[in-house]
Every structure is written in C-alpha cells, then in structure tokens.
Predict the 3D structure of the following.
Amino acid sequence: MLEQARKYLQSYFGYETFRKGQEQAIQQVLDGVNSICVMPTGGGKSICYQIPALVLEGTTIVVSPLISLMKDQVDTLIEAGISAAYINSSLSHEEVREVLYDVQRGAVKLLYIAPERLDSQTFLNELQGIPVPLIAVDEAHCISQWGHDFRPSYRLISRMTELFPNTPTVLALTATATPQVREDICRILAIKEEHTVMTGFERANLSFSVIPGQDREKFLKDYVKKNENEAGIIYAATRKTVDHVHDMLHKRGVKVAKYHAGLYDEDRRYEQERFLKDEVDVMVATNAFGMGIDKSNIRYVIHYQIPRNMESYYQEAGRAGRDGLPSECILMYASQDVQTQRFLIDQAQDQSRIPGELVKLQGMVDYCHTENCLQQFIIHYFGDTDAQECGRCSNCMDNRESQDVTTDAQMVLSCVIRMGQKFGKMLTAQVLTGSKNKKVIEFGFDKLTTYGILKHYSAKEVANLMEFMISQDLLAVEHGSFPTIYVTEHSKDVLKGNRKVLRKGVVITKQIADNDPMFEELRVLRKRLAEEANVPPFVIFSDKTLQDMCARRPKDEDEFLKVSGVGANKLEKYGDAFLAVING
C-alpha cells in the first residue's frame, strides 16, 4: 500500500518524495495504528491523512475547528482531482443534506467536519453505516485542557469512533503541543506513546526577530513599503489597535484588509477572501484571524503587540512561509502590551485557568528579553532541549553597534524619582522634554531640576528610551488602572556611575525577496487563472512552485511535470498557459 501512496503523492500532489515524518505517519495509519503526529506549521501534516484517504476504502473524516482551513483544503483537493467536502456552520441545512447524500453514496473521499457537529446525535446518526477507515483529528491540542485553545467538543471524538462497523484508525495532528498536552491527547484518544511521530519544531525557512522599545508605526510603515506586493499579516491584541493600524496603512496607499470579531460575519468573510485571493497584500487582524489559513505565500508575520502565550505566537508566526521559502516573523515589544494581555486574561470565563495563563504570558515576556537564540528558545519551550542555535534570528545575527546612553538613562531615572515614582511613561517623557502640558504645570513638574533636560529629543523618542530601559529591568511598571513606572534595584549602579547602559541602534527594515521579472509574470497569470476558477491563487500553484518554474524553465509538458508541486491534474489544466509565458 505504501507504494500506492507514493504514486498518489506524485500524480495528485506533484511531489517525488515524502517529507520527514510523513512516510512513517502514513505507514502507521495504513497498518491500522492509532498515532499522534507533531509537525511544525507548513511541515505537511495534511498529506499524512490525505494520502491514506486515497489508498483506503471508504470516507476519511477530518475533524477541524477551522472553517477557513476546511474551505482552503477542500478547494485545493478538488483542484487536484480529489473528491472532498465539508460540513460546518457556513452551510445551509439544504447544503448539509446534499453533502451527506454524497457521503452516503460513497462519492466523497474526505469529509471535513467541525467538532461542534459531534454534539448533535441527529448528525451522528446520519454517519452510521458509512465505511470510515480513518478519523483525522486536526489541531489536536484543542482536546487538552492544558492546550492554548481548548474545545470541549473535541472530547467527544473518542465516542465517535464507536459509531462505525469497523473501528476507524485515529490520527491526531498538531503543530504546537507541549509534553503535557501530548500526554493528554494520547490518553484521551487511546494512542500509545511509542506511536508518536515527531519531526521537531524548527522552521528552517523562518527568521525570528524581537524589536523592543522602538517606534512601531515608523518601523511598520517602512517595512510594508519595502515589501509591497509581498503578502503579510500584522497581528494586534485589540480591535481598536487593528482599526488604527489598518487606517494608518490605508492612508499611505497600502492594499490592506482587516479582520476582528467586531465586524459583521459577511464583512469578515469579504476581507478574508480579498487577502486569500491576493487582492490585498496585508491583513491586519486580531488572533480571531488565521487559524488554519492555508495561504502558502505569506512572506512575513508581524506581531504589533505581544501575544498571550508561546503556543499562540508560534502558531500565528508560523503562518509565514508555509511554502518553504524564506520568510520573517517579527515581534514588536512594548511593556504596556503586557498589561493589555493581563486585562484580556482576567476576562476569562473559566477563572481557574487564569494562573496558568499568567505563567504562559510571563514566558512570552521572557522570550522578548532573552539575548539567546530566539528559535532555540521557542523549541526548548515545546520540550525539545537538543535544539541548536539557528544562526538566522535577530539575536544570532545582531551586529548593530551599541551606543552609550548612560547619561540619558541617568536623567530619566532621576526624573522618575523626583516625580515620586507614581506617574506614567508619557507624562514623565513630557517633563523631560519640557512640555507645557496642562498636567505638567498643574503638578508643578516644570519646577523640577529635571524639567526639559532631554528637550533635544521628542517625547516619543524619550518614551522609546524608557521602553528600552524597562526591557533592561532598569525601570519597572506598576500595573493598575493607570500603569506607573518606578526605579528598580538594578538601576542603583547606573545612578552611581558604576554601570554603563549600552543600547543597540534601531533595527533597519529590509526587503525580503529579490524581484524576478518572470516570477512576477507567472504571478499575474496565476491570479487571472485563480479568478476564473474562483479559488485563491495559492490553490493553483504555490510561490515555491512558481520559483521552481523560473529555475527550471521547462520547455514542454514532460519537463513541466518535473516542477515541484505539479501533478498530472494540474498539468492538464494549466500546463499550456504557464509554458506559454515561460517560453515567451
């Protein structure tokens, strides 16, 4: 059967060989062994159940919490010539009936369902008697109460296996599971620990960066401008920030969309479709966006504010570079964002989860402050302690010169002390820059010896210096209704002149990809064909496949079939059009 699986990999998906871990996972499924597969985002988890679904008799059921992913994957499978369908809340009652009819008559090889469907006994009754060889549990960390996205409905999956005449094999898949979460998944789904397929958490094509205490708006404007025509996601913690960043970029002429829970359903769908179809380059969103987005050509993910835990961060950042091409993951750190996340955590319905969530948030703060390899830090978090330094992240590659800012730091510390250590960052910056602000005058801060001693800077520049000092633990933030700053123990040596404060220069934005005229032409053709087929462009071919076309310059159909990601079905549909551009 494994030989048949290899043939399907070539004929349907256009790949010569399986990636690391895929063959082992597929072999275990074909042997009827319940397994858990832990692979990083973009590592090819879907192949691990899509190929067995083609080999085995009957309909494979895929449980997925992600409506957008279901649609993307079904569109991609149908484009490749594989019968697939989904059932979720986006379908009408009549549409659900049509899909179930097709399933019952054996016309669907893969059926994607939302976990909430398992709450309906009526729905489960409709599935009884259908030959189901495999149940794939995508985003399996949702089954664990220790996971970052726990879904109670996932607990019903083990009950579903009893529905069918022959007990189906179960394959659990996840990209972000700590050892505790993996143990929970195996216990609930009756998977033996030795049947774990784990390829490691490293994403070799991604470079990670943390940018603390820098002007975020300026950095973002420069970065997006330098990388126009590249697809990117900018994540923010609140709807208000999403709206602000979206409007800021829109005013600068950037093709940008936005996504958050405050929009109407149809508006969210419209914005998402624009991004998927390459009608806009940038999506600004809260974490409500992107769970399972299968768009493979995202070149960068920027977190404008710190996310609440490492699991969420790695999953969201991992939406960059799913096609394997070099991509960037940037986190912009400001201490006040920690307060925002604490506020959001305090709103949790299940109060018992709050202490654990605060511990995870502290893990994110530690990540932002580490001077060690960022990728190594992430991989260690997920339990792989053998990871080596990546050599690509901002810490590994940091060759910026340090500037001595000891005198400026002493002035800031002195001012904070003279103001009584009970005011916020912005008011302190206004005092230091000599502002005539009403509050400054009312409190008599214009009489302080530190008033105006940093007037050669703007208030924003001084606030950024204070952000840097917070990241170096020279200042700390007292969190409350109005966050205030105070001087830490570590700052005493600075005030006495026994310790220097060195600050790296600002991070300079750069362009990710080189412009190749043929690649751009192929991209235009792909978009036109996608519009005709009413699917996102990446469903036609990934950026990686287009790049392989540019490198190989195929002259005929035989050579075109050797391009990575070109299967027989895609050759028949699109070969002539792409060959015409390449050979033109």
